[in-house]
Amino acid sequence: MFPREVHAAGGVIVRDGLIAVVHRPYREDWSLPKGKLDAGETFEVAALREIREETGYEVELGEELTEVRYEDHKGRPKLVRYWLMSIVSGDFTVNDEVDELRWLAPNDAIALLTYENDHDVVREAAERTIIV
Question: Number of folded domains in the chain?
Fold first, then answer.
């Protein structure tokens, strides 16, 4: 029997040519904000919720970026959909999942991000928003 595919959603939050990256202490990694869908939730709703939970920001969805597929740390297939996002309101707040958020230029974000998949998403976001 094949394991069920895990679905997640997140975003590349862009502000003044910079991208938000988050540190997750429980994984000891730097990543783009994202998380798994709740039962019955759409990818879009999950993306907005996860950004709010992990960063404290209310955001609006922009253009969808290329989806990412990989095997998670439990060996399950995982699909993550990302959107370009802009902040509507709010402020970063340390929480149970994220203890630090940094605003970085795309190349600096790529240098800090732990996962290669995130590097590709940032490169695409930078190309689409013409930030360097």
Answer: 1
Q: CB of 41 within 8 A of CB of 8?
A: no
Residues 6+ apart with CB under 8 A from 113: 21, 30, 31, 32, 119, 122
Give residues with Cβ within 8 angstroms of 127, minimum separation 6: none
Q: What is the DSSP string of 30-86?
A: EE-SEEEPPTT--HHHHHHHHHHHHH-EEEEEEEEPPPEEEE-TTS-EEEEEEEEEE
CATH number, domain of 125, equals: 3.90.79.10
Segments forming the whole domain that contains residue 57: 6-129
132: pLDDT confidence band, cut at 50, 70 and 90? very low
Give the residue-averaged pLDDT of 65-76: 93
Joined tokens for residue 45 = 């709703």
Give me the amino acid identity at 82.
Y
Does position 131 have pLDDT exceeding 60, yes or no? no
Question: Considering the domain boundaries, does residue 70 fall inside one?
Answer: yes
Confidence of residue 1 (pLDDT cuts 50, 70, 90): low
